[in-house]
Amino acid sequence: MGNDVYLFSILHLGPNPHMGHLAWADAFVITADSVSMLSEACSTGKPVYVIGAELCTWKFADFQKRLMDQGVARPFTGKENVTDSWSYPPLNDTADAASQVIRALAQRGWTIHT
């Protein structure tokens, strides 16, 4: 990991580089209020740090606690060395959700062709 840090702001004009960030970043520090951004980062298997979780509503706090309990994300306190590498099996919630939907429809007699 290098020492280069890049910050993307919503105020940035031009195309959103988020998908490129997911591919090229070595680690992520993500604000706690974005479930979608946290989910996408956790699908990479790369270190994910959550900042601001203590300020979130119960819904966001519960989501982050689940990620941390699974070892997928860690709290960002400002004291950790984000260049330390750690990993986990990447989350693939979309495939899991699709499997559950297919199972539920099959239980109701639907024929699903995949």
Automatic annotation (TrEMBL):
Gene Ontology cellular component annotations, sorted alphabetically: mitochondrial outer membrane
Native source organism of the sequence: Acacia crassicarpa (northern wattle)
Name assigned to this protein: Mitochondrial fission protein ELM1
One GO term of the biological process aspect: mitochondrial fission
Coiled-coil boundaries: none
InterPro entries assigned: Elm1-like (IPR009367)
Signal peptide: none
Pfam family, one: Mito_fiss_Elm1
